[in-house]
Amino acid sequence: MAHFESYVMICNSTGNQPVNLMPAIQFGIKHIIALSTEEAIRQAWTERLSKVAQKHAIVVQPMEIPASIEKSLPDLIEKLLNSINDFPMIVWNISGGQKIPTIALHDAFQRRIQLGFHEDQVLYTEGRPPTVWMYGGNYFMSSFRSNAYLTMEDILTLYGSILVKGEMLYPKSSPEVVDNLEIGRRALQFFKQNKYFREVFFRIMHPSPEYTKSRNDVEAMIKNILNQLKPNLNSITVKHHKGYENFEYEIKKVFSKIDRVSDVETLRTLLKPLTLIQKPKEIYKDYWLSIRNRIVEGVLEKFAIQKHPLFTQEPTQGEIKRLVSEIRSIGGKVNEYSGQLCKEDILQISKITRPGLLFEWMVAASVIDLISQNSNISNCISEVHSNVVTKRADAPYAKPDSELDLVITTRFGTLIIFEMKTYEFSGDVAKSKEGTAYKKSGPFGSAVIIGPIMHDMIFCSVKGRKQYDSYIDPVTQAQEETAWQNNIPYWYLDDISVNLRKVLYIQE
User: Fold this and answer.
1) For 15-31, what is each residue's pLDDT tens digit?
2) 43: phi > 0 → left, psi -120 to 50 → alpha, else beta; which?
3) How many angstroms separate the CA atoms of 315 and 341, rounded?
4) Which residues form the domain of 396?
5) Is the peptide bond before 175 cis (omega within 30 degrees of 0)?
């Protein structure tokens, strides 16, 4: 690897600042001169570069370019040559910026070579694959794979964003993250190896049929249940106020004795237990609450009867026992059941209660395990974060503008954004993730959708159309097509290893 500690780098200040900062870090350059147009200053491009560069002990010196000479090649060359006489060795970075300033940089390099500065070098960075190209006065080309440690926050800063929140998964992690990764890891193992765990996952993840009914359907169903639920008067008990439980008895006693009352005082004594009738609102409220509670209990009982089967092919009792053991081993909760295991018996699939969130940790565990097991992958990655929320840096009171499931920070200055989807998502969602990758990480950033589909859940019909296991509904089946129609890659769950190598440009 070449080292240029004694060199000064001259570059165009650009909205894509990693092309300037990454090679400076990689080759040990400690001084950057950034040609800064009025637009670059207005957009704070140079300011962002300087802020991040300071963390790496690199000084950024702006060279302001007035609008009057920005498009004048002779004036730009002259300004460059007059400003750099004190620097014996220069790396001319022509990776970013507008074309005319870039041409001026290269022409200045050629003039320097003619003047005897034979140590000068030209540098160009490309993103796909991540490569740095360099040549000197003899124009002999050499290349290096881009490799420099930038944090996710560094990259966000370079593109004008700040981190609101996020959990680091790699290279270090909190005890809570370690716990969630272990749950995700074990759940992924069960998902891959046990078809019944897989089927339960899909059943729990999807809405129950009653939740997909129309308003009229639900209304009719409730009315039918209530018609069968007229409470028996004896089952209605009032417990809120002392005396109410004997109210009916006291009324009967008054009517049985009223004909025998001979004086007012006796009548008053007889009627005294009925003074509660002066509080009709309270009486109504208490009776209504009792009736309502009884009806709710009855409705719930009726719903409980309408259980939903979990399996297309009923497992053996041994297979059910194994399944229940797996669910409970990751913190899930299963009702006591007799015979058939139904959807309503799975109270909680894991300690991570939401299936969608559990799926995110399953993917995260897969990525972290790949990093720990493969040095080629780990050498390409700086950090991994989950549950990332960002917002614009130039608007302190602005609301967050992105929520990201999983973010990989590469060692070539980009972000790979993973969006995990267990069920339905729209084309707009897919497009927004692609746009977020560009906004947060420049033209070489990338975004992918990962769904819960694996290759062994798919088979092809005679006409070559994909057919899926019966428990995978059309909404989930449509994920892949939705993603590709909106020009965003879609990964199967069991393709993460292969595809991650591809986006990291690893050839093994």
Assistant:
1) 999 999 999 999 999 99
2) alpha
3) 9
4) 161-174+355-503
5) no
